[in-house]
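--- STAGE predict ---
source: upstream dedup step, 1 unique chain passed
mode: sequence only
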Amino acid sequence: MKLHLECVPCYIRQVLDAAKLVSKDKKLHEKIIRESLKAAVDFDCDSIGLLSQVKIQNAVKGLLPDDDPYDDIKKKFNLICMDMEEDLRKTIKDSTDPFETSLRISLAGNIIDFGPKQVLNRSIILRAIKKSLNQNLCRNNVLLLRQNIKKAKKILFIGDNAGEIVFDKIFIEWLPKKKITYVVRGGPALNDSTMDDAEMVGMTEVVRVITTGLDMPAAILPLCSKEFMDEYNDSGLIISKGQGNYEALSDEDKNIFFLLKIKCPVIAEDFNGKYRLGDIVVDTRLNNTGF
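--- STAGE serialize ---
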């Protein structure tokens, strides 16, 4: 997805939020804003928007006293979601369509995102799950996703946030696990899942897990590792979770299904008005029938 002007101040706010998590030093906050603005000035609206985010985050990385400011938050929300697992599995097992119910729970998990400015806790997540189980969802796209999962020989499932990874695991438990590879970030990036989170929640015990090789909150293909790109190119189906991965992959000529919750008006606009803020989405840009 090309850069939208509204994204630039959002990228700057994200690095300031990270700084505030690990330091109360206002002089440091001021320096981080100044360095962010210097990096942001060369933004290119004809380029991938996330590349501007890379420049901004790289410009301040050495200034932060902690290379993973969100570490405590990630562990906290992993534990919160792990505590819900058995109840959610029962909800899925008792439902008339376990595939769709587990998919909806996975989609609900995309609310666990500290990129947008929002307050989150256990009660809010439970309300999001309850809402997701009853929200409108394009039935044709759900059917297409089900058919693609059944037919594809290899599936690459690109994950998003900590906490949310628990709900992805519950969804994957209803899928053909042997042909799925799950992807986490290659290093700390906001509250996105890394290999540490995959191990903590037991995802590594369910399916093979690799990283993007990149410590950024999206699978930005020009920067990803060879291991990731080999899997990406060899997979007949890509399942992409979250807004960041949508931004990175929405223009790709590939069999990709996007699973996300709309939390940003820019993303809603990029779907040409099909969705509104708060909607859960299963969508694909291709009329795909081949594998």
